[in-house]
Write a structure and sequence with these properties.
By secondary structure, this protein is an alpha/beta fold. It has 3 helices and 4 strands, in the order ββααβαβ.
Length: 71
């Protein structure tokens, strides 16, 4: 997992093997990576873990101000 500037953003790069392995095995860990100050989440190569889409939907349902960018 990589935090990028500004500090209210989270970048997850699924081309990184460790990130891909961790979230593939436990997609619910995405919730734990989001802090109260997180405003934007970017998930690069999101299609590699289809189960993440349910987690993203749950995050968006609970936080209407959160922006999620999937690439």
């Amino acid at each position: 997992r990589n935090l990028v500037e500004p500090s209210d953003s989270l970048l997850l790069d699924l081309t990184q093997a460790n990130t891909l392995r961790e979230l593939s095995a436990h997609p619910e860990k995405l919730r734990g990576l989001i802090t109260p100050t997180t405003k934007t989440v970017v998930i690069d190569e999101a299609q590699k873990i289809p189960e993440l889409f349910d987690e993203v939907q749950g995050l968006l349902d609970r936080n209407k101000e959160l922006r999620v960018i999937l690439s």
